[in-house]
């Protein structure tokens, strides 16, 4: 009976929450990386050098970094529903304004403001999932939600490329149309969030009394066991935990890889002679493989109850792909290389994001997750910027791709050290989710 109830509740919660937050993340990621497609024509219209473009694309993450932790602590106080709606509406407005960039300064300012607007969204969702799903289920639901990022690239690439073809309509450039039309869903969904998301299981009218009680009890039991076992209760403890800083370093490398791909892949493919529409479809191939790799690897991680080696293997695959991408000479081989990178980075994320909530709870979890995400996301500033700088100095992408591969190797090494430091009695923390 208990087992049947668990299955029923989890099915209801999953169907109610996961498809919707996937849609939100899909739009978030699209508005974050559509700059890569805009660059195919915008850089020429605005006379942006590779260095200016790399800096502007990356500066998003400085805004994101500075406002991430405060944003997540506010979310904890006001509730996910209101705060996630605020995040979406403000980022929709800023994203639409990108169509009216006048030059380098306005490009930098708007990208920075987009980062400020989006701060708190991703860790907010990770935290929100912990209000609804027991730890043992979390890697898999996190993977399904995160699959929205490569899916966003897979579906968003052909859409962005097609919107570039609207060039000249009503006197606007194709990239301007792309920014305006891709901002509208964020604004609309921001309003829908208010009606669709429920802050906590206690408020879920769509669950029966029995279902609500079971879910609240099982999550509370887990929370208490963690809090008594670890005593990491205050937000400050979450920020001061060395494991949080180590995981932030790991995420720094994977973010550098993810956003180097998201922002520069269209131009890398373009350098092999592909047209905008061809790039739209070619850029989708690695992303589809990334979705499959992410879900299968997360399932394997949950089944074996192991996290560390799953993250290490994925980071090594991504690094190998980047090294290969830096040395290829044909369009076909560059797509293979980008596919390896995408699969590696996508697969690393669910096991990595299952780790912090294994040793943190309450405000410490909110602050710790936000710190990992905001510090880690600075990789999204450094990676794309270094590609731009090195490309401007050398005329080639190779050095920049090798640099990002090096960051991913550091990520793999950090997880290896973390796993080694987990004393035998505590090994469960990094290798296995709690099963209370």
UniProtKB/TrEMBL annotation:
Its main location: membrane. Residues 17-423 form the Major facilitator superfamily (MFS) profile domain. It is a multi-pass membrane protein. GO terms for cellular component: membrane. The chain crosses the membrane at residues 20-40, 46-67, 79-101, 107-129, 141-163, 175-197, 244-265, 277-299, 311-344, 364-389, 401-420. Pfam families: MFS_1. GO terms for molecular function: transmembrane transporter activity. It is found in: Membrane. It comes from the Bacteria. CDD domains: MFS_ExuT_GudP_like (cd17319). Keywords: Membrane, Transmembrane, Transmembrane helix, Transport. InterPro entries: MFS, MFS_dom, MFS_trans_sf. The keyword GTP-binding does not apply. SUPFAM superfamilies: MFS general substrate transporter. Component of the tartrate utilization system and may allow entry of tartrate and tartrate dehydrogenase. This is Putative tartrate transporter. It comes from Enterobacter agglomerans (Erwinia herbicola).
């Amino acid at each position: 009976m208990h087992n049947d109830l668990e299955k029923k509740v989890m099915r209801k919660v999953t169907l109610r929450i996961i498809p919707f937050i996937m849609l939100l993340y899909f739009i978030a990621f699209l508005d974050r990386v559509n700059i890569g497609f805009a660059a195919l024509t915008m850089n020429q219209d605005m006379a942006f050098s590779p260095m200016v473009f790399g800096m502007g694309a990356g500066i998003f993450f400085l805004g994101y970094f500075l406002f991430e932790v405060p944003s997540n602590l506010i979310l904890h106080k006001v509730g996910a529903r209101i705060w996630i709606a605020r995040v979406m509406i403000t980022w929709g407005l800023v994203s639409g304004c990108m169509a009216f960039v006048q030059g380098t300064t306005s490009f930098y300012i708007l990208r920075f403001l987009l980062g400020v607007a989006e701060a708190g969204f991703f860790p907010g969702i990770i935290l929100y999932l912990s209000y609804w799903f027991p730890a043992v289920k979390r890697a898999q639901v996190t993977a399904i939600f995160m699959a929205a990022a490569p899916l966003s690239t897979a579906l968003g690439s052909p859409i962005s490329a097609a919107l570039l073809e609207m060039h000249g309509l009503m006197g606007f450039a194709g990239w301007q149309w792309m920014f305006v039309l891709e901002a509208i869903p964020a604004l609309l969904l921001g309003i829908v969030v208010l009606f669709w998301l429920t802050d906590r299981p206690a408020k879920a009218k769509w669950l029966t009394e029995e279902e609500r009680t079971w879910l609240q009890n099982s999550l509370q039991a887990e929370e208490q066991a963690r809090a008594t076992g670890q005593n990491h209760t205050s937000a400050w403890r979450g920020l001061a935990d060395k494991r949080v800083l180590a995981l932030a370093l790991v995420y720094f490398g994977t973010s550098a890889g993810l956003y180097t791909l998201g922002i520069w892949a269209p131009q890398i493919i373009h350098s092999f002679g592909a047209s905008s529409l061809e790039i739209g479809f070619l850029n989708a191939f690695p992303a589809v493989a990334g979705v499959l790799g992410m879900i299968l690897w997360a399932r394997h991680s949950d089944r074996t109850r192991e996290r560390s080696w799953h993250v290490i293997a994925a980071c090594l695959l991504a690094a190998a792909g980047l090294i290969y991408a830096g040395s290829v000479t044909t369009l076909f081989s560059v797509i293979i290389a980008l596919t390896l990178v995408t699969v590696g980075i996508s697969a690393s994320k669910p096991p990595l994001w299952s780790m912090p909530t294994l040793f943190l709870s309450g405000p410490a979890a909110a602050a710790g997750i936000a710190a990992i995400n905001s510090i880690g996301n600075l990789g999204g500033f450094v990676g794309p910027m270094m590609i731009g700088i090195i490309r401007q100095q050398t005329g080639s992408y190779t050095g920049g791709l090798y640099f990002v591969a090096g960051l991913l190797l550091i990520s793999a090494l950090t997880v290896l050290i973390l796993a080694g430091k987990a004393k035998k009695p505590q090994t469960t923390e990094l290798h296995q989710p709690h099963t209370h």
